[in-house]
């Protein structure tokens, strides 16, 4: 008997989304939606379909690797290279 792999089964929970909406990105990174939009635009990770805007996770994560939190505040600044 052949096994058919389907993204709707248990594998779906293990798969990472490549594109998310602004609200989902803000929740997953724990930041304000306006900050996520600004970082996504700076990273070139914003994609738009007719009336829906998505953020591509991979370039946003690569961009945010170079950010550092300032003290105990929620401010993020870019690290020197």
Characterization of this structure:
With about 80 residues, this protein is an alpha+beta fold. The protein has 4 helices and 5 strands. The relative contact order is 0.15. Strand 4 and strand 5 form a beta hairpin. Helix 2 (about 20-30) packs across helix 3 (about 35-45) and helix 3 crosses helix 4 (about 55-65). It has helices at about 10-15, 20-30, 35-45, 55-65, and strands spanning about 20, 45-50, 50-55, 65-70, 75-80. The strands form 2 sheets. It has a 3-stranded antiparallel β-sheet. Helix content is about 40%, strand content about 20%.
Question: Keyphrases for this structure?
Answer:
81 residues; globular; alpha+beta; two-stranded antiparallel sheet; 38% helix
Could you give a short description of this structure?
By secondary structure, this protein is α+β, with helices and mostly antiparallel strands.
